[in-house]
């Protein structure tokens, strides 16, 4: 019933059935989230960064008598990156609690083990059945973030205009739709690397790029997956250095809700209103560039008080907790074998 699935060559009807499955999951588990549409969904499911691999499986009903492929009931993939496999699984609500989720994880975990990976991670959305599911399978909760959502209809654009102007003298903002210009790629990657060294971070289940080539690859991968990046940079005028950056991605799969990715302000540039000004400017630019957009979502570590305070000022409202769970692959495979 579970078979390996290559979204690159899958019939269009299967991509549509995957879309229907993910939307049934969203309607059940995240009813406030926008449903997905088939904007570059095939590319979203198959494109990866150089050096990474994504292996997918589906659980599918039998084909109909007239040869139409059966509906996709469940799906799992593992993204093999660095030294970790990152899982994503979904099972249609109508067929849950019959062991399908467990079967999908077991298939992906076994393969991850065979591929020589030792640890496996997964993003789990708070207040959904996935929490009980992964805890039953023996995963450990390793990191907690809060997702917040900003509804553009609630934004006070006059106040936001003041925030966008409220940056200290000696800095200027630049809006870069599509990604940073080639001449700023090195400075951009340096800014990200510096903050990573100082601030540490999560388990890095989401891609982030700290060297220039990886950054180019990462931007290329986003574009191929139908995820349009927008960047606002703060430039220190006397040095030309990137003092800060904020990244938002508008995915073709849910173009009404954008994802706020990294926001970074270099250590020596903190305290000058850069974070607030960059994010405010970004919202202005998005309003023009993306007329379909109605919301922006972002994830913050609970310890990151300063950034959460700025987000609250902009109008973001905490929505739900978001976790990273992890497991040792060999132990997971043993456990799944032992418990049938
Ligand atoms: C998590 C998920 C994959 C589980 O699928 P499933 O087919 O119902 O899982 P299983 O039947 O294999 O459950 C295995 C065990 O996990 C545990 N479990 C599963 N759902 C649970 C729940 N709602 N609460 C508590 N424990 C749960 C149980 O111990 C279960 O065994 P049992 O039914 O014998 O008690 C499914 O709920 C799902 O697709 N959730 C959405 C995933 C998601 O968030 N995706 C990202 C957003 S699109």
Q: What's the quick description here?
A:
By secondary structure, the protein is of the alpha+beta class. It has helices at 12-29, 41-46, 100-114, 129-136, 157-165, 185-199, 212-224, 274-289, 305-314, 329-338; strands at residues 2-5, 53-60, 72-81, 84-91, 119-125, 140-151, 171-177, 227-236, 242-251, 257-265, 295-301, 317-328.
Topology summary:
Blueprint: E1 2-5, H1 12-29, H2 41-46, E2 53-60, E3 72-81, E4 84-91, H3 100-114, E5 119-125, H4 129-136, E6 140-151, H5 157-165, E7 171-177, H6 185-199, H7 212-224, E8 227-236, E9 242-251, E10 257-265, H8 274-289, E11 295-301, H9 305-314, E12 317-328, H10 329-338
Parallel strand pairs: 4-5, 10-11
Antiparallel strand pairs: 1-2, 2-3, 3-4, 5-12, 6-11, 6-12, 7-8, 8-9, 9-10
Helix pairs in contact: 3-10, 5-8, 8-9
The structure holds coenzyme A.
Coenzyme A binds near residues 99, 128 and 136.
Question: What does it look like?
Answer:
The chain starts with a strand and ends with a helix. Strand 3 and strand 4 form a beta hairpin. With 340 residues, the chain is of the alpha+beta class. Strands 1-2-3-4-5-12-6-11-10-9-8-7 form a 12-stranded mixed sheet, with helices on both faces. It contains 10 helices and 12 strands. It is globular, with a radius of gyration of 21 Å. The longest helix has 18 residues. It folds into 2 domains: 159 residues, Gcn5-related N-acetyltransferase (GNAT) (Aminopeptidase, 3-Layer(aba) Sandwich); 159 residues, Aminopeptidase. The chain binds coenzyme A.
């Amino acid at each position: 019933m579970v078979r390996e699935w290559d979204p690159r060559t899958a019939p269009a009807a299967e991509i549509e059935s995957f879309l229907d499955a993910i939307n049934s999951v969203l309607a059940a588990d995240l009813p406030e989230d926008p449903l997905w549409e088939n904007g570059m969904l095939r590319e979203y499911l198959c494109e990866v960064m150089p050096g990474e691999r994504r292996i997918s499986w589906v659980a599918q009903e039998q084909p109909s008598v007239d040869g139409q492929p059966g509906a996709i009931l469940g799906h799992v993939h593992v993204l093999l990156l660095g030294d970790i496999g990152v899982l994503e699984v979904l099972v249609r609500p109508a067929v849950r609690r019959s062991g399908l989720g467990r079967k999908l994880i077991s298939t992906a975990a076994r393969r991850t083990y065979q591929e020589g990976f030792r640890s496996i991670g997964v993003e789990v959305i708070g207040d959904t059945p996935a929490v009980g599911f992964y805890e039953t399978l023996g995963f450990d909760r390793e990191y907690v973030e809060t997702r917040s959502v900003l509804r553009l209809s609630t934004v006070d654009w006059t106040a936001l205009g003041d925030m966008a102007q409220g940056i200290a003298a000696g800095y200027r903002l630049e809006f870069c739709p599509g990604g940073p210009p080639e001449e700023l790629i090195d400075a951009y990657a340096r800014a990200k690397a510096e903050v990573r060294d100082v601030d540490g971070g999560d388990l890095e289940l989401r891609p982030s790029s700290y060297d220039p080539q990886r950054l180019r690859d990462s931007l290329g991968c986003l574009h191929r997956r139908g995820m349009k990046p927008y960047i606002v940079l703060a430039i220190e005028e006397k040095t030309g250095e990137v003092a800060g950056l904020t990244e938002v991605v508008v995915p073709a799969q849910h173009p009404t809700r954008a994802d706020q990715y990294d926001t970074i302000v270099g250590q020596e540039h903190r305290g000058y209103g850069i974070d607030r000004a960059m994010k405010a400017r970004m919202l202005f630019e998005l309003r023009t560039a993306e007329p379909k957009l109605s919301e922006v979502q972002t994830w913050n570590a609970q310890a990151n008080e300063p950034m959460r305070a700025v987000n609250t000022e902009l109008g973001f409202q905490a929505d739900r907790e978001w976790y990273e769970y992890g497991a040792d692959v060999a132990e997971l495979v043993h456990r799944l074998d032992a418990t049938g």
